[in-house]
Every structure is written in structure tokens, then in C-alpha cells.
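Mods, move this if it's the wrong board.
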Amino acid sequence: MTFKLFLPAVLALIAVCGVMWLPASARAPENLPAIFLAILVHVPMFLPVSQHGKLITNKSKVLNTYPEILLPPLLAVCWAFLGVTFGFSASFVLAGAATIAAICICYLAVRLCDRHTKHLQAQICHSDTLPSPYIADLSKRYLYLLRCAMAALSLATLVMHIVGRDVPYTWALLPGLAGAAAVFLTELTKRVDRANHAVFAKEVSGLLARQLQAAPASVAVYHAGTGRTHLKVTKSLCEKLDDLGRTYVLIVREQTAYEELRKLDLQHLWHAEKLSALHHCAQPDLRTILYANGHPKNSHFTRYTRFEHVLVTEFSTLKTAEQLPKNTALYTKIIARDAAQAAQWRTSALGDIAARIVTNHPAFHCVPTRGEPQPEQAA
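Not the wrong board. C-alpha cells:
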């Protein structure tokens, strides 16, 4: 809240300084309110998109996602108001329409670059320790500079109009060039990112394998679900493995869950949103995959039959269930809370599920201080 109050105060101070820097002839008393209004409307456009949301105290879902959506309409209202107040001209209308359109294109180009990058990134396994093959962040910096140039041009045009000077028709060409540059840069970014993605996708598995060689881990925790309960049980399972001193990999499916779980002190955190990304997570050095809950997306990874898939019921709602649901047939082992519960589940289990119910697993045995053993060796 302190920053939200501080930032508008800084913007207001910048606006006052901008008025003071104008020539004395332009600072006529009747012009000052209009100039001050124009500066206040334009100053937020010199900020990065990530800072726009900090100017809004009450955010709706749309404003929280796209905080910049208010600025182009606000700029259009400013142009219309000053045009009505000080008179319209053909060059003024043309320059205003072109400048506002160019600023909108720059905002839209940033969102398109983000969307395209996220779409590509979802196809491969992502980790904070892996290099990024995408140039979208670099392109967004150039788009930001283009937007700042258009905001400065818009402000200069309005000040010229307020002090009574004619706006040249040639000024309408600059926003057109800027808009064309933004479109070209966006398409170039998408093409380069697609090419880099095709190359990088072939190398991801090898990069993850090198990570496991540097910090060996034979156990992985698979997480799916964005609810608080899903996150809570996975965190509890990770805490238990940490207490045992075991190095493990945490595989997360959803982006929101990834942002939450990355706050943990993890040595290996992999984000695999799409099914194609799970293929990169199926590393040969892994032996055991632990599941803290019975989420339907668990079946996406249990199809890799070379792993031992273990359902841990200690932290989920299954620990109080009288019998196991049918989808537990997906797992190689189901760990019951105690011997009594294991016996109860075996009596009602279907098929060979009864033989898979256990009360302990080598993955939860204490790890010796020297090296990490395989789960089957820990016993």
C-alpha cells in the first residue's frame, strides 16, 4: 500500500517539474491546467506494464490481468477534451488517432509475445536453472522504448496544440512507422522463438539428465492440482523427504502451482504443463515417483511403466477412507497409514490391488550421509 501511494506522488512531482521546464510563453495561466492534465495522463505510459497495476488500488479480475487496458481510452479522452477546449484541426485529429493506435499496438504486441512464449514453453519441461531459448524478453524492451517514444510524441503534440502552434501533418507518419515496427518486431520474435524452441526441445532431456548427475536423485514427487488442499499435501510430503535428507525432484503441472511451490527450498523443480513436456521428465536416473493425492492428471505420468509409482495416502483425504477407489489401480504401491488400515483396504480391494498395499517404502528410509542410494537399495 505504501508503494501504491508513493508512486502517484512521484508522478505528480514529475508533472509539476515538466510544467516548470516549459518556456515562459507557454506557461500562461490559462494553459497550465491543460498542460498539467496532459502530463499526468502521459506519465504512466512511460512505466513498464508490470508497474501499471501498482497504480490501481481496487483491481477487478480484468484489471489485475491487463492493468494497461485503461490507459489508451484515458489518452483518447484527453485528446478529445483538449481538442474541444482548444479547437480541432485535421492534422491534430490525424496525429491523435495515429499516436493512440501506435500505443495500442505496442501494448498488444507485448501481450502477444508473452502469450506465444508461454505457449511454446508449455510444450517443454521448464526449470529456473535451465537457459531460456526465447528472445521475447529482449523484444519487449524494444517495444517498451517504442511506446515511450510514442507517449513523448503524443505529449509534445498536445502541448504544441495547447500553446497555439499547428501540428505538422508529417507527425502522423511517425506513429505509423512505430506501429509497423512493433508489428514487424512481434512477428520476428515469434519466428525466431519457434526456431529456437525446435532446437531447444531436443536438448531439454539431456540438460535435465546433467542436473541429476550433478545432484543425484532417484525419487520424484509428482504434483497436479491448484487447490489449497493439493498444495498442502504436496508440501507435507516434501517436508517429510527433506527431514529424511533425501534429494528428490518435484514435477509440477500447473503454472499457478509452480509459482507457489517454487517458494520451497528445492534442488530440482521441474514444470511440465503439457503432456509433451512430461516426456522430458521421464529421466532414466529416476526410479520411484511419489504421489501425494489421487488427482486425475496422475494418470498422465503413470503411463511410464518403467517407474515405480507410489501413492502416499498419509497426507490426503484417503487416509480416512474405508476402502480405496478404483483409480488406485494406476499405482504400483499404495502406502497405508498403519497395519490396521492396510488390512481393511486389502479386504475390499479388487484384483491385485491388495498385493500393492503396504505400510512403508524404501523411499522413506533415512538416507546415509554419503551419496544418495536408490530406493530399492535403502532397504
